[in-house]
Amino acid sequence: MIKAINVHKKFGNLHVLKGVSAQIEKGEVIAIIGSSGSGKSTFLRCLNLLEIPDEGSIYIEDTDIVSRSTNLNMIRKDVGMVFQQFNLFPHMSALQNVMLAPTKVKKSDTKSVKNVALELIVKVGLADKANAYPRQLSGGQQQRVAIARALAMQPKVMLFDEPTSALDPEMIKEVLTVIQKLAEEGMTMVIVTHEMGFAREVAHRVLFFDDGIILEEGTPVDIFDNPRQMRTKEFLSKIL
Question: Could you give the angle at the alpha carbon of 58 between the alpha carbons of 190 and 35, nearest 5°?
Fold first, then answer.
């Protein structure tokens, strides 16, 4: 589904990604872990070209999305993204937020979009909040609306950039439960997370980023129980 080959990214003199290569299969759930500044969120943002790599290729299925001939809007329809901050439109209800992109970008008819949006709102456990505005929702509820909004475009891949980091501890589980349900349904997902228990439970593979490279990768058992690299052991010893 996704193949990254020798991806480099610089911000001025700061070399953030130093030749990252990774392959993600259809239906696979990848957890990306590592310390702040290790390049994990930058890599995620490169996967839908919110950041443009300076070198390397990224393929979504058979399309090199870094190629200048690629239609960015077509790529972004296929790659949904959920951020740390919810970024909902405050003047729109939950339902209107979910309906917006398919109506404006895909030009789908309003009736069918509304039906799908309502199904997604039920799916994320907010059936009674469809007409509520963001200010009337908790952080966890807003993040679940943001997930429904991304799903409304019927993406082939979902990217999550620390989706629970802005939430109070008691709200984290409700969001992770939704993501876990998507995993069980076979959605291809790449998740940057600090929730190690969640990564262990849901991910098929874990990528450990350190200083702009993937220092180690493997199954959750490989990474959490039998890490090979000293830096991985050191990182995990501080957070587990």
Answer: 45
pLDDT of residue 4: 97
On the question of pLDDT at 143 being above 90, the answer is: yes
* Distance of alpha carbon 91 from alpha carbon 85, whole angstroms: 17
Parallel, antiparallel, or unpaired for β 205-210 and 29-33?
A: parallel
Q: Is 10 exposed, middle or buried (0-12, 13-18, 19+ CB in 10 A)?
A: middle
Coil/strand/helix, residue 104: helix
Report the alpha-carbon distance of residue 224 to residue 112 in Å, rounded: 44
Kindly report the length of the chain: 240
Q: What is the pTM of this model?
A: 0.93
Cα separation, 231 vs 223, in Å, equals 12
Q: Could you tell me the end-to-end alpha-carbon distance of the chain, in angstroms, rounded to an integer?
A: 31
Q: Which strand ranges, in their side-by-side order, compose the sheet holding 14-24?
A: 14-24, 2-11, 55-60, 63-64
Nearest partner of 126 among 156, 150, 103, 146, judged by Cα: 146
Residue-wise pLDDT for 14-55, tens only, equals: 999 999 999 999 999 999 999 999 999 999 999 999 999 999
